[in-house]
Specification:
alpha/beta, globular
């Protein structure tokens, strides 16, 4: 019997994107389907278009042609993309993007500023999330007082603040040593399993990509249909 596919969470349809008046063709007609609960790694060399594709999925950029859909709705039809991103998408970046003057607990609360949660409830949720990423003892520390791996774990906790449906991680281990890379990837894998959250990882690191259930390799703005899809590692 043929296995039924899961519901589609996000879809990229014939998307193109160019920069510098068309001189740089970042995406050349991309088609990609992301199902509910997927863990997908988008791989490829620098300049292959993988980060541009991630930005399209998160509503951070718009295509020149084609369409990006979230649960069947075109992102181009959503009037307030900022609100969409705040409610539906969590972001983890290579450079952490933590606010230097805020503590770990306060940084995690930043996405909750416009939520209906009272201040005390925001703080309670932030502490809970930091505990889940193993930083219960570091909630009052500022980014300068944390290691690179700890900063990224704060960033991961922050990305979960509003319980997003989709988590987008752009080179989350790019600034980390091997030990911290393993810790962050095992953490992301546990979060994916526990929450049933859809996770898309952009990485050039094969050891990080190996945690994903599916790998999509990009080259020169296109998806390579013949790229191998090795089995995911089990942390």
């Amino acid at each position: 019997m043929e296995e039924l596919s899961k519901p589609c969470l996000a879809e990229v349809i014939a998307v193109t994107r160019s920069y510098e008046n068309g001189r740089v063709r970042a995406l050349r007609g991309i088609d990609l389907r992301i199902e509910e609960g997927d863990f997908v790694a988008i791989t490829g060399s620098s300049g292959s278009g993988k980060t541009t594709l991630l930005q399209m999925l998160g509503g951070l950029d718009t295509p020149d042609s084609g369409e990006v859909r979230f649960r069947g709705q075109a992102l181009s039809a959503i009037r307030d993309l900022s609100s969409f991103r705040a409610r539906k998408v969590g972001f983890v970046f290579q450079s952490f993007h933590l606010l230097a003057t805020l503590t770990a607990c306060e940084n995690v609360q930043v996405p909750m500023v416009e939520s209906p949660l009272p201040t005390k409830e925001r703080e309670k949720r932030a502490i809970q999330l930091l505990d889940e990423v193993g930083l219960a003892e570091r909630i009052h520390h500022r980014p300068s007082e944390l290691s690179g791996g700890e900063r990224q774990r704060v960033a991961i906790a922050r990305s979960l603040a509003n319980e997003p449906d989709l988590l987008l991680a752009d080179e989350p281990t790019g600034n980390l040593d091997r030990e911290s890379t393993s810790m962050v990837m095992e953490l992301l894998t546990r979060i994916h399993r526990k929450n049933g959250m859809t996770l898309i990882l952009v990485t050039h690191d094969p050891s990080a990509a190996a945690y994903a259930h599916r790998q999509v390799r990009m080259s020169d703005g296109l998806i390579d249909p013949n790229a191998p899809n090795p089995p995911a590692v089990t942390p």
